[in-house]
Inverse folding.
């Protein structure tokens, strides 16, 4: 079984305004409300790829109810921990430019923390747990390490998709996959990249420090896969870009969903690229039909 953990879910409120101007009343041309949060995005794509998963995390209030009902309407299996505070709303304003306003997240109590840990403790050997996204400010520093300790004790695998110290601390525990983008990787190692060649030593460093598979996403320059036998680069698929929200999560879902079935990292990388690209080309997350249509266009080249 694959489990996803979203500590700070959201309603993603996508608002389109033709030409946004401050200090005046603006009219929406269209808007969408989607269940959001990185782990939730992973769960939604896994479902579309026939790789069932269980969504864990914190949900609360009327916003949490909206998310849970939306996910259940898609046929997803949810086992969220109910919290007293409201789940946040994130606003994505799309106009001539794209602006995001993200909520901070709910207050999480010690009792609610323990309830989540008890749910996570039900995993078994061979399961995969995807730990994704930021944590509410009310959670103590290093909380991901507490969850990783549970996963390791159960002899399960984990994916970590976060940034900074939480990512650095997770490496020694041997994550199945990490997927920083090029900017997050540069921040992690306090450096700058000007070419793809600059990135390669740092992707290899993630492997040396414990990651078993590494994907570095580079937006318009495609993505890199680092595994023990080499470095591989994907091409860039060509369609009109519609959406930057959830593309990285979709890439993780595509990779993990395929890897669980094939244990072939190159085939999994192809699914990751097709899934991430499909979401970038969609108003919401990619559909299975679009992912499958994009798969034959994905080209993987060994570059190191």
């Amino acid at each position: 079984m694959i489990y996803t953990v979203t500590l700070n879910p959201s309603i993603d409120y996508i608002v389109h305004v033709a030409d946004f101007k401050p200090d005046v009343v603006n009219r929406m041309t269209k808007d969408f409300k989607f269940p959001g949060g990185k782990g939730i995005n992973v769960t939604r794509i896994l479902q579309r790829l026939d790789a069932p998963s269980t969504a864990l995390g914190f949900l609360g209030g009327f916003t949490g109810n909206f998310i849970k009902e939306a996910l259940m309407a898609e046929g997803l299996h949810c086992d969220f921990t109910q919290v007293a505070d409201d789940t946040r709303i994130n606003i994505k304003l799309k106009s001539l430019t794209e602006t995001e306003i993200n909520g901070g997240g709910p207050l999480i109590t010690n009792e609610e923390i323990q309830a989540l840990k008890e749910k996570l403790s039900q995993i078994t050997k061979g399961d995969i747990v995807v730990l994704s996204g930021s944590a509410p400010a009310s959670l103590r520093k290093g909380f991901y390490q507490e969850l990783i300790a549970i996963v390791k004790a159960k002899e399960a695998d984990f994916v970590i998709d976060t940034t900074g110290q939480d990512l650095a601390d997770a490496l020694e525990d041997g994550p199945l996959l990490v997927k920083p983008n090029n900017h997050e990787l540069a921040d992690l190692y306090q450096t700058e990249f000007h070419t793809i060649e600059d990135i390669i030593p740092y992707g290899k460093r993630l492997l040396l420090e414990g990651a078993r598979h590494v994907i570095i996403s580079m937006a318009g320059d495609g993505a890199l896969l680092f595994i023990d036998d080499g470095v591989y680069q994907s091409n860039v698929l060509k369609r009109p870009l519609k959406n930057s929200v959830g593309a990285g999560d979709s890439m993780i879902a595509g990779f993990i969903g395929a890897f669980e079935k094939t244990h072939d990292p190159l085939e999994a990388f192809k699914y990751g690229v097709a899934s991430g690209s499909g979401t970038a080309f969609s108003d919401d997350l990619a559909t299975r039909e679009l992912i499958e249509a994009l798969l034959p266009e994905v080209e993987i080249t060994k570059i190191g």
Remarks:
- The chain has ten helices and 15 strands.
- The mean pLDDT is 95.
- Residues 94 and 143 are 33 Å apart (CA to CA).
- The first strand starts at residue 2 and ends at 6.
